[in-house]
Amino acid sequence: MSAAAIPYTVEPRPDSGLNNVKIGIWLFLASEVMLFGALFAGYILLRVGAETWPRGAEFLSVPWATTNTVVLISSSVTMVLAWAALMKKNFSRYKLFMGLTVLAGFGFLGIKYIEYTSKFHHGYFPSTNTFLSIYFLMTGLHALHVIGGMVVNAYFWGPGSKMWKTHPQQFINRVEIAGLFWHFVDLVWIFLFPILYLL
Amino acid sequence: MEDTHHEEHHHEELGFWRKYVFSVDHKVIGIQYAITGLLFLFFGFCLMMLMRWQLAFPGRALPIIGGLFGDSRMPSGVMLPEFYNQLGAMHGTIMVFLGVVPLGVGGFGNFVVPLQIGAPDMAFPRLNMASYWSFFLGGVTMLVSFFVPGGAAQAGWTAYPPLAETTPAPGQALWLIGMVFLITSSLLGSVNFITTIIQLRAKGLSFMRLPFFVWSQLVTAFLLLLAFPPLEAAGFMQLMDIVAGTSFFLPSGLVVSGQALEVAGGGSPILWQHLFWFLAHPEVYVLILPALGIVSEIVANNTRKPLWGYKSLVYSVVFLGFMSFIVWAHHMFITGMGTVMSSFFQTTTMIISIPSVVILTVLLLSLWGGSIRFNTPMLFALAFLPMFAIGGLTGLPLGLSSTDIHLHDTYYVIGHFHYVVAPGSIFALFAGIYYWYPKATGRKMSELLGKLHFWPSFICMNFIFFPMLIQGMAGLNRRMYDGGASYAHAQPVLHLNGVISAAAWIMALAQVFFVINFFRSLKKGERVGTNPWQATTLEWAAPSPPPHGNFATEPTVYRGPYEYSVPGAAQDFSPQFNPDGGSLSENQTA
């Protein structure tokens, strides 16, 4: 064993039943829950304190957001299918589903872009009122998370996938971890959609 | 074995930059954190010494160096109120986020934790390096903010809006951006610490055999992981308020300097306070827990007996960690919250004092009957106990809303939390430096210079912070540009301003002994073996300084962390890593 080799990077530690990365990503997601949790708390406090609070549909497009919800949930499904394909050692099927996941990410961002620009055309800016402030902040931060997830997924679809030949188990772990993050991003949207657009 | 050889050879060939600057070795990163933290501590101390001039001699020109600061800060040597406010805000920010936390968590945590659990490194070495450099960028951002138009942030380290959003925007925006870097750094660090402690413990090192220092770092990492993100969210909101013209924290109809603010309004300044203190109360424990961990190690080692009540320590620190998330609003009693809310937060505040007192009592009782060695680390550790006790006990009146209304925002508050953090945490950090310096360098620091550093620091600390308690009870408000000179009720306690300032400047002189000792001992300190303090925990099984990868062979743990003076043992310490309870082997003697 080499002097600086760190144990349990790939195989799980017997007493915790997990490898390092799995623990790391769950801790990271816990921190993310606190980040978005604080924003949701801010949303509630601002709304409770407001004299009037618009219905989401007055400013926002529910049909586009519904489409986006379907797109993002579908991408979570393709993400799982990509991982499952690796578990069955079917690499070309993995490439297909991972590619679809990344494409769905582009689809989501494209629709988000259409939504944002149409707001700006109507003269709706973050400074217009507190509803739009929190809308732009929460969806903007969420979009940054989508972009982050897409960068990781695109890497594992493209250059990162060479690892499948050399360290298959580690590659499966990495895709699983990327998937956990992607599902989290999806989950945040599932909370954002009703509170911003529907309620 | 061939593989080992190859690896070591490979590491020796690392160039200067990869070895000392962009290193992924936890020990190098720990030392980088510690040195940077010490430099920021010194810088923050300098800011405070400048402020102390203005407080002791309001409106008088600062001699000799007064002209160096320029007309926008100190025209002809006289400090402007705006500059005073910048110094105050940045002193707090730098001491907390760039000094004490990086030294206690980034420095000692990084260096000591992997060694104490018998790990070759942290679980994610590259994340560790990213954490340091993110911290470094945050620090640079804070420093740069002094030189933008309008100067650095002026609204205090708490950055309360609407004030924070009506002071010059560039400085405040940079403060917020700097905080985002620091939060990112602490996120990467805390994920790393928790994973490392759960996953990389050596064989036989169960959780109840962990040294208390590791426990304190584990709880600290959870606090950083979960408490910092809400401040990040609040930071984004305040940044939007400043940059994009939103009004998250600006209420409707706000009038500033006689002019109505042209914003949409509808925001809530109290929202910032909630999100800020949701971080900043756990942050208090982030400042103090590593210190308690360090003191426990040193007390056990220098009393030559086991800690009295190891389990009580562990359960207390875990309970303290949980409770620290539900006491934050005791900082906000005068915001007009209802009696139900204030009763809740008073109750939780009184409850959280119980584990703190348990921890302190355990450390105090551990001294009983020990054959105490009064070396420099032990002196600092011993001084920590009464100083932290004063800091803790003076906090109780602040936790009760009726007494808090009188004491809120006075110098009493300043005295209280500085007793916790300055002669408390910082003394413990000094103790840690003297204690682990031999492990990091292979040489001991000088005892004589250490004592010359300790005694004046100890005396001056009390001359600085005790008068503040007296001033505060007399009603002297904090954050006053003239130190209270224009207030009638402050006159009887005004002379103390001079005493405090003089003590602060004398204390600065005492730190010269530390600086000399720190550098001189690198070359001239007494050479030591692996275990100079005859200690029991795992870091003393590794060579001093430990090589990359730390341990020559993977260590195994056979017993609890503090088995000193075991009856019938050959010597007065039974290291965790010795299978037979320990006969003296050659390389363990000093």
CATH top level assignment of chain B = Mainly Alpha
Strand content of chain A: under 5%
Q: Which oligomerization state do the chains in this entry correspond to?
A: heterodimer
Number of helices of chain A: 7
Q: For the residues shown, what is the average pLDDT of chain A? A: 95
- The parts of chain B where pLDDT drops under 50 for at least 5 residues are 1-11, 583-590
CATH superfamily of the domain at 62-198 in chain A: Cytochrome c oxidase, subunit III, four-helix bundle
Q: CATH top level of the domain at 62-198 in chain A?
A: Mainly Alpha
What's the overall geometry of chain A? Answer: elongated
Q: Total domains of chain B, how many?
A: 1
The helicity of chain B comes to 55-70%
**What is the correct CATH architecture of chain B?**
Up-down Bundle
Q: Which structural class fits the helix and strand makeup of chain A?
A: mainly alpha
Mean of all residue-level pLDDT scores of chain B: 93
The CA-CA distance between the termini of chain B, in Å, is 31 Å
Could you describe the largest sheet of chain A, including whether it forms a barrel? none
User: What is the string of SSEs of chain B from the N terminus onward?
Assistant: HHHHHHHHEEHHHHHHHHH
Largest interface: A-B, 44 and 51 residues
Please identify which CATH superfamily of chain B we are dealing with. Cytochrome c oxidase-like, subunit I domain
Instruction: Classify the fold: give the CATH topology of chain B.
Output: Cytochrome C Oxidase, Chain A
Written account of the structure:
The complex is a heterodimer of chains A (199) and B (590). With 199 residues, chain A is mostly helical. Chain A has helices at residues 20-49, 56-59, 62-87, 91-121, 130-157, 163-166, 168-198. The model of chain A has no long low-confidence stretch (mean pLDDT 95). Chain B is mainly alpha-helical. The two termini of chain B are 31 Å apart. In chain B, strands 1-2 form a two-stranded antiparallel sheet.
